[in-house]
TrEMBL record:
PROSITE patterns: PROKAR_LIPOPROTEIN (PS51257)
Biological source species: Microbacterium faecale
Keyword terms of this UniProt record: Signal
One Pfam match: NMT1
Compartment(s) of residence: Periplasm
Cytoplasm as UniProt keyword: no
GO annotations of cellular component type: periplasmic space
Signal peptide location: 1-21
Family from the record: Belongs to the bacterial solute-binding protein SsuA/TauA family.
Name of the featured protein: Sulfonate ABC transporter substrate-binding protein
SsuA/THI5-like domain residues: 65-269
Length: 333
């Protein structure tokens, strides 16, 4: 199910004024700081771009960029569409209803193996390579589960099967000397995970924020077994931005505008945690006290192609994709 939300340009009148000045002398092909409007030399038109987002905390950075006028400063009239899940965005991007999507790279790799012309065009959000990560496997403290291999023969809940949760847990169990094939995975939505764990309907649950912070606040009931991303592929991207081959190959100026505006937006969100938090509150509906305490992904538009290569190999190894896609095509230059 997809809900359409048109992002208006409220609060960016001043930025629009700056845009008009910059557009008159900018290059439509981008490449220079600040970007420029597309639509022909000497025009002041903004380039319309539609992006699909999930209503989760890191995706709010795009909304932050809209609110701050950053996309307009880079010559973009941005429309945001919100979706229930990453998979729901893929058809819209593939058919051109959306120019770009922000979602899990594993979904993009899976689509590419199904002959859907999807391209990863930039980084977006990344798991933390060390310290307290942004998702974890949580157990009941009373059970004394202490290592990844202890999950052998147990039931582990993830929000969906054959996604990043069970992929990284499989790898973590194997690296710890356990047998991942003996782990039974069940699907439990994130909001229900901790209650179902406490009720005994799972032996462990894979949860992100803000549910992870909820578990950490009650150590007598819940224990963090570990961070599977760090065990399996430290720093793995949790979301990338992606587009269709039609946009990547046929509209390079639009692609360049998007990349420049996104990079500026993510940098600005990183530098303004207070403002970013306020946008997360309005974008997701989470209370301010919850947003204040949650851990957040590392945001950057930069992307090391090697981490996608490693993720693709891991997905093929565990049968999440039948074969690896042509990454020279999928990872847009």
């Amino acid at each position: 199910m997809i809900t359409r939300t048109r992002i208006t340009t409220v609060g960016v009148i001043a930025a629009a004024g700056l845009l008009l000045a910059s557009c008159s002398s900018g290059s439509p092909s981008g490449g220079s700081e600040g970007g420029a409007a597309e639509g022909g030399a000497g025009t002041e038109e903004l380039t319309p771009i539609t992006v699909g987002l999930l209503t989760i905390a890191p995706a709010a950075a795009v909304q932050y960029g809209v609110d701050q006028g950053i996309f307009e400063e880079h010559g973009i009239d941005l429309t945001v569409e919100t979706a229930q899940g990453g998979a729901a965005m893929l058809p819209s991007v593939s058919t051109g209803a959306y120019d770009f999507g922000v979602g899990n790279p594993l979904s993009v790799l899976t689509a590419a193996t199904q002959d859907i012309d999807m391209r990863i065009v930039s980084g977006y959000s990344f798991s933390l390579e060390e310290g307290d990560d942004i998702n974890a496997v949580v157990t009941r403290t009373e059970d004394g589960i202490e290592s990844w291999s202890d999950l052998e023969g147990l039931t582990v809940a993830t929000n969906a099967i054959k996604t990043q949760g069970d992929l990284t847990i499989n790898e973590a169990v194997e690296l710890d000397g356990g047998d991942p094939s003996s782990v039974e995975y069940v699907e439990i939505p994130f909001p229900d995970a901790l209650p179902q764990l406490e009720a005994g309907n799972a032996d462990a649950v894979w949860i992100p924020e803000p549910f992870l912070s909820q578990a950490l606040a009650d150590p007598d009931t819940y224990s963090v077994l570990g961070y599977p991303n760090q065990a399996a592929l430290p720093g793995v991207p949790t979301m990338v931005t992606f587009s269709s081959g039609a946009v990547v190959d046929g509209e390079p100026e639009k692609l360049e505008l998007w990349r420049e505006a996104l990079a500026a937006t993510l940098d600005a969100a990183n530098e303004d945690r207070e403002g970013y938090n306020a946008t997360i509150e309005s974008f997701t509906g989470m209370p301010a006290e919850v947003v204040e305490g949650i851990g957040l992904e590392r945001l950057t538009a930069d992307l090391d192609p090697q981490v996608i290569t490693d993720l693709s190999a891991m997905a093929a190894k565990w049968g999440f994709i039948e074969s690896e896609p042509d990454l020279d095509v999928v990872i847009a230059p």
